[in-house]
Specification:
single chain; mainly alpha; about 60% helix
């Protein structure tokens, strides 16, 4: 039997440490198991490395939340999560560029 418990807030607490933001909460009733969190962690770390974000930065937190929401919406493949993360970043950057 697997128990999710407070794994989400403890395992992904790096997103909220030292920044003064509220702790992450799952946005759906879908539990995140340790193997789910491991997959999310790998994709999150890859995005942080690729975009050269400190893991505790506001940008990293924002995209970490997006990854969790995307995962809970059904995207389980790490390559697809990475593509979704990149797409989300690119759209965000496009919106900030002057016309």
């Amino acid at each position: 039997m697997r128990v999710a418990g407070n794994v989400l807030t403890s395992k992904l607490s790096f997103l909220a440490e030292g920044i003064g933001v509220r702790p992450l909460r799952a946005s759906s009733n879908t539990p995140l198991w340790p193997e789910d969190l491991d997959a999310l962690q790998r994709v999150f770390d890859w995005l942080c490395s690729e975009y050269r974000w400190p893991r505790k930065s506001a940008q990293a937190q924002r995209y970490g939340r997006m990854l969790i929401e995307e995962y809970q919406a059904g995207t389980r493949d790490e390559r697809l999560l990475l593509a979704a993360g990149r797409s989300f970043v690119d759209r965000s950057l496009d919106q900030r560029r002057p016309a």
